[in-house]
Each structure stands twice: as C-alpha cells, then as structure tokens.
Amino acid sequence: MPSRPMMCFKCAVPRELVRVSPLAPGYELREFECPRCGKVLRLTTKIGNGKA
Questions:
Q1: Global pTM value
Q2: Which of 12, 30, 31, 34 is the most buried (most CB within 10 A)?
C-alpha cells in the first residue's frame, strides 16, 4: 500500500480504496474512488513474489 493516499487528479482530495480483486497469480486489481466526483482509478498491483 502506498505511504501517501492516492489523490484525485480532478478534485485533489484523497481517493478511497473501494475494491481489491484477484487477477492472475501474484497480481491484484485495486480500485480507488474519489468521494467528491466519483471517478474510479484502477491499478494492477504485483503482490508477493509472483509464484503461487
């Protein structure tokens, strides 16, 4: 998890983590939503060492 909160590019407020979904082994999809404008940022994140 990043040490700083994900910021909305439009509103400049911290986004909230709303969903974490598993993808391929060792990867997950994280969705961050802006509480003000509702825009969603989707990030693919590598977790662990990638071996399952």
A1: 0.76
A2: 34
